[in-house]
Amino acid sequence: MTWESGISFFLAVLIFGVTPGPGVFAILARALVCGARSCFWLALGMTVSDMLYLIAACIGLAALATHWGEVFTLIRIAGAVYLAYLGWKMWTAPLDLSTAEAAPSAKGGALSFLQGFLISASNPKVILFYIAFLPTFMDLDALAGGDIAVAALLTLVGLMIGLMSIALFSARARRFFKSESSVRRLNRGAGSIMVAAGVYLVSRN
């Protein structure tokens, strides 16, 4: 992984981390009720789960790229279609924060970490995100353990920055996140990014 691809990958993970989803709404709810500091272990649990999905995607993609190029192409197209579908779901999703706000808060760091881990791990579609994006930033034919380690570290830093930024902003700007029109604009903006990424990916040779 080059410096340029590493920076690009970091920015992509950062954007992915702040797009609306179950994890983001859980962070929002926790920050609104308990403040930003209470979200650290929750965010870390989500991030560790994503890192495991990333490593699994790296290993699986490397094997497919080496032995089954045509299958890899099909997976890349499927990943692009999934990104477009995810963008459409974000664009059209109704605003509903009631579930996240009703979730019980964990007092202990370990329990909060486990809660965050399960929130992310219960959504196996996360691995499709990494399957779709990794070929853009890594040469899968030359994928090494060091590249995977760097990608995992960038994922850790990028997701934690994104999630904790949401927690800080949510704790300081409650009215913004309680506005239905504001959250709807955020959903549509994130959805547009996902659709554009899917179109870009499927158009690559």
UniProtKB/TrEMBL annotation:
**Record-linked InterPro entries:** LeuE-type
Q: Which domain of life is it from?
A: Bacteria
- Is ATP-binding among the key words of this record? no
**Transmembrane stretches, by residue range?**
6-28, 40-65, 71-88, 109-133, 148-173
Where is it mostly found? Answer: membrane
Keyword tags = Cell membrane, Membrane, Transmembrane, Transmembrane helix
Where it sits in the cell: the answer is:
Cell membrane
Which terms does the record give in the GO molecular function aspect?
A: amino acid transmembrane transporter activity
* Pfam families, per database record: LysE
Q: What Gene Ontology terms describe where this protein resides (cellular component)?
A: plasma membrane
- Membrane topology classification: Multi-pass membrane protein
Spell out the protein name for this chain. Answer: Threonine transporter
